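agent> Task received from the user: take the single chain below, predict its 3D structure, and emit structure tokens. No templates, no multimer pairing.
agent> Plan: (1) validate residues, (2) run structure prediction, (3) serialize to tokens, (4) report one or two observations.
agent> Step 1 OK, no nonstandard residues flagged.
tool_call: predict_structure(input=
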Amino acid sequence: MTVQPEATVPLIEVRGVTKRYAGVAAVNALDLTILPGEIHALVGENGSGKSTACKLLAGVIRPDEGHLEMDGGRVDFHSPADARKRGVAMVYQEFSLIDSMTVGQNLQLGREPRVFSDQSVNSAAQAVLSELTFPLDPRAVVSTLGSAHKQMAEIAKAVGSGARVIMFDEPTATLTPEDKRQLFYVIEKLRDQGIGILFVSHVLEEALDHADRISVMRDGVLQVTAPASEFTREALVRSMVGRDVQFTRVKRPPLPDTEPALVVRGLSVGNIVRSMSFRVRRGEIVGFAGLVGSGRTETALVVSGALRRNRFGGGRVVIDGRAVRFRTPAAAIRAGVGYITEDRKKNGFFETMNTEQNIYMGWLAKHRGFWTSPKRARKLVERYSTELSVRGNLNGSVKKLSGGNQQKVVIAKTLSADPEIVIFDEPTRGVDVGAIDSIHALIRATADSGKAVVVISSYLPEVLAISDRVLVTKAGQVVAEFDPERATEEDILFAAVH
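)
tool_result: status=success, residues=498
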């Protein structure tokens, strides 16, 4: 970790910048600098202004007050293209690549030469990919790539454009542990080349382990900027939320020995899920841990009617003693199964609708309603916006809310149908530590109300904190079961790998 001396001239500076939406300041009088050859982490709760700050730097939006400076002079970015020309690029959490084009073609977008051929495009792309040691074929079509390789292509695109400042928005949200290690190896390599890195992350350990400096935002205001070495996790959380947040288990009363609400027996889906078996009782929270690709999400999709199991030898799904085979998610919802997706942007909400409309759509899915009831919709949104502390303009489009608040809307939409079996798939991905508290409290309250709850999470502290039992999956089947009171993260990870 290399902390630059204060005398270093910043690559880019934010000077007293304010940005308002509907009269509310998303960012207020922000001062921020990014130095050459540093990794600068930007952390804060959802809605704290982090994304707005990044969009201002990337030229996506323009400030209402204040200005940006580069190379000793004032700059005014009218568009992301303006920012890229000055050497400022952003790698978004939702990839900006064009799926139907190759990696090489994507790397050339926005700076195409007058005359070019496939060979020249691929050669130029290969030079950048080799410099970064990325195992990507420039001829590969982007739609065929996984999340990790798409992110590599995004980084290569930024580096290939000659960026001096690269911003990363939640870069590790969809990556495996091995992919995360590779990503930070590349980020540190870019820093060593003198490039300034700004990355936004809700995983505080990433900021503490990899950043040179950390800036903390709360309610649109910069609270503190200091070397990472001066922070502890507790101090960082306190700066973010203004209070201490303990990520610990809550003791729950023992469950009565009742018949399971959900039984999955010998479930098989292609080569991904192979003879998956487990059961969940009412009032119980069963946590699923395992590596990406171990079959957890695919199992949840079968139970919730979004994926078909093998026609022959596909196993059984039994709900309250009755074998079921749902052909559509709507059938599963009507039968009392609720699934909160891991991909909120793609499958979680209707982005052109507001919060109230989205939550009410969950209720309509269960009751097959055609006529809307504004009174019922208001009651639902009042209930869940309070329980989950949804912040932001609830009458505006959900896509304008912060990622964490979008996640809360997705959870509320599913729970508004009052399901008896609730599957939370990565419920706190991209959610800040303050919001995790309220989501965990809601998960516990859901189980306490007598519902059967499944939580799928790649974050082991979360699995241990929230679960009554922990099941570990590998190669499409359950390979171990742990009592979270006695298990450690090392125990679970060993079972998932070996």
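agent> Step 4: summary for the user.
The longest helix spans residues 177-192.
agent> Done.
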